[in-house]
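step=encode ok
step=design start
structure_in=
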């Protein structure tokens, strides 16, 4: 069975719900679920803090008896393994009276990988597996960790019109305005860990926390790229490739400086670039990115695709992702 256009719209809604679980659901993926009956949503849920309850359990609890004969939209294949904290979601769905399940993405976890779908089918439930772009985007950290053994990496740059991140003497407060800085804090709250270079740490002693009302508890783990001593209150990496060892981290936010940005780009470890561009010209200042070893432009075109653009006060925010990431 193929997914209908209406199915993709409901999956997109489930993917938006999944964002509410990020990053508190770690080490579990942030999953969204919606239950629909007669074109009306009767239940919804997303993975809760610490990974339980799962999205499907929340949505079924809300739907109650209305789940009978309904369709469940889930961004990730329902789990097939029972844990000490609860039963397998595939079994819960099978016992709920649900008539149809539409799944946005296959689960690469070997404990589920296809078995969730098999259990639903064995229970007589019509099951549709899509390669849904919205679901895939909402699971980017989980899927990147499964496929590449590392977090999904976002590189953030705040720069002037002429590509500078600081004055020649290193002063950079503040290139962007208040609204853009608040947006940065909101982005930090969506990540498991945040990283800066040792030079930035020593020069600025940044707090690297979330300072938005109600979101202070969302401050990510703090990491520093350095070959020196581990800074107080942070963990150290000696090279970008070490991110594979960041246990449980699905989303990593790299804030700079220029040499750290260059190191991650040179190692081809950046999945998303977020740029905050202020309407100022600095002139003789510090470049946003250092040398990445590029010798020609032939293979660089078409590598990044713009996925978001918005105005934040006087500053412009633009996000780019690897070409094909959302296809």
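sequence_out=
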């Amino acid at each position: 069975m193929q997914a209908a256009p209406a199915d993709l719209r409901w999956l997109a809604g489930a993917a938006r719900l999944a964002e509410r679980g990020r990053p508190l659901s770690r080490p579990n993926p942030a999953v969204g679920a919606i239950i629909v009956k007669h074109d009306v949503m009767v239940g919804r849920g997303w993975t809760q803090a610490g990974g339980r309850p799962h999205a499907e359990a929340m949505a079924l609890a809300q739907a109650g008896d209305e789940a009978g004969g309904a369709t469940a939209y889930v961004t990730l294949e329902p789990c097939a393994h029972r844990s000490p904290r609860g039963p397998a979601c595939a079994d819960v769905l099978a016992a709920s009276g649900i008539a149809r399940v539409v799944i946005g993405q296959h689960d690469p976890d070997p404990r589920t990988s296809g078995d969730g779908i098999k259990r639903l089918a064995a229970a007589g439930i019509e099951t549709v597996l899509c390669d849904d772009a919205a679901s895939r985007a909402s699971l980017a950290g989980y899927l990147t960790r499964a496929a590449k053994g590392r977090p999904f990496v976002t590189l953030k740059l705040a720069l002037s019109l002429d590509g500078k991140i600081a004055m020649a003497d290193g002063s950079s407060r503040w290139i962007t305005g208040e609204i853009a800085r608040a947006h940065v804090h909101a982005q930090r709250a969506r990540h498991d860990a945040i990283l800066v270079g040792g030079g930035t740490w020593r020069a600025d002693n940044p707090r690297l926390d979330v300072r938005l009302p109600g979101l202070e508890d969302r401050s990510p783990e703090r990491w520093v790229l350095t070959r020196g001593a581990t800074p107080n209150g942070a963990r150290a990496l000696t090279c970008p490739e070490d991110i594979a060892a960041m246990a449980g981290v699905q989303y990593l936010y790299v804030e700079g400086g220029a040499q750290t940005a260059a190191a991650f780009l040179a190692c081809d470890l950046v999945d998303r670039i977020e740029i905050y561009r202020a309407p100022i010209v600095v002139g003789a200042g510090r470049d946003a990115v250092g040398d990445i070893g590029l010798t020609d432009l032939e293979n660089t075109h078409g590598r990044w695709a713009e996925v978001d653009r918005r105005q934040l006060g006087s500053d412009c925010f633009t996000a780019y992702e690897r070409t094909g990431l959302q296809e």
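step=design ok
step=annotate ok -> The chain has a mean pLDDT of 90.
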